[in-house]
Q: What sequence folds into this?
């Protein structure tokens, strides 16, 4: 398994970051993609990826919450990061009309600038969308055939939104939201609709600790070590063998991020 969404730069990991990675390895997680959400966080994610070569990789991007910090839409700092071998995608980028921490026109401009950069560099994009589906799809659609691959991470939308994404040939990232008996009921049904070669799994840690973990962890902090549990829940929802799904999602993520198989296997 590869955890495609790990916010390892988050301050909640400051005291035991190495132990978190060790627990992930011990749990059978074969690789971590460390999420960049701003220029600074992307630089930190790259530095952390270099601490675990061949196991951790990173993305370079600006989350819509941080779009207001971008002044140069040619994105020179991201372009500089993107050439590093550990950086395997552009993002996290997209739209967030739920919290509106950045003005919507700025979010849209920065999202499109990152799509343009990914298309130019022929890199996959790691995307975020919350309460902005129509605008998200309208901006992404003209770029989709110019991009080698694109994933909407932490999908929690409707059936119609999922079908829109699949029609645009997007990969779908599923988190522990699917383990939430309060909010995840619809998602448990929708995961059945995702083709095997479009499904990837993630924790989005430290957020979204699976609510059905037993025994219940003492901390509310999510970790990559819980990825096998999330994958098992998804497999049950899809009526698939958990081991087979783990292998399939690993291969899908390896192909999406262009990571050599020997690196994913930790050799």
A:
């Amino acid at each position: 398994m590869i955890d495609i969404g790990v916010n390892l730069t988050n301050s909640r990991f400051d005291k035991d970051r190495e132990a978190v990675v060790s627990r992930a390895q011990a749990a059978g997680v074969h690789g971590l993609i460390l999420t960049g959400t701003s220029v600074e966080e992307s630089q930190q994610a790259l530095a952390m990826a270099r601490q675990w070569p061949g196991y951790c990789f990173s993305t370079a991007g600006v989350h819509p919450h941080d779009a207001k910090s971008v002044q140069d839409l040619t994105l020179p700092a991201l372009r500089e990061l993107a050439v590093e071998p550990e950086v395997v995608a552009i993002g996290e980028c997209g739209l967030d009309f739920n919290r509106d921490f950045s003005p919507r026109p700025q979010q849209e401009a920065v999202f499109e600038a990152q799509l343009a950069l990914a298309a130019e560099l022929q890199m996959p994009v790691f995307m975020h969308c919350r309460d902005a589906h129509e605008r998200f799809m309208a901006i992404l659609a003209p770029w989709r055939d110019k991009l080698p691959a694109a994933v909407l991470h932490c999908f929690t939308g409707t059936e119609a939104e999922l079908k829109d994404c699949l029609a645009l040939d997007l990969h779908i990232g599923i988190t522990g939201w699917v383990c939430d008996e309060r909010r995840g009921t619809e998602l448990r049904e929708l995961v059945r609709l995702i083709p095997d070669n479009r499904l990837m799994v993630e924790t989005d840690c430290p957020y979204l600790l699976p609510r059905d973990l037993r025994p219940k962890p003492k901390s509310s902090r999510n970790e990559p070590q819980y990825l096998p549990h999330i994958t098992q829940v998804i497999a049950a929802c899809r009526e698939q063998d958990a081991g087979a799904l783990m292998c399939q999602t690993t291969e899908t993520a390896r192909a999406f991020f262009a990571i050599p198989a020997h690196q994913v296997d930790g050799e």
In short: Residues 71 and 110 are 9 Å apart (CA to CA). Strands lie at 2-6, 31-34, 56-60, 87-96, 125-130, 150-152, 171-174, 199-201. The radius of gyration is 17 Å.
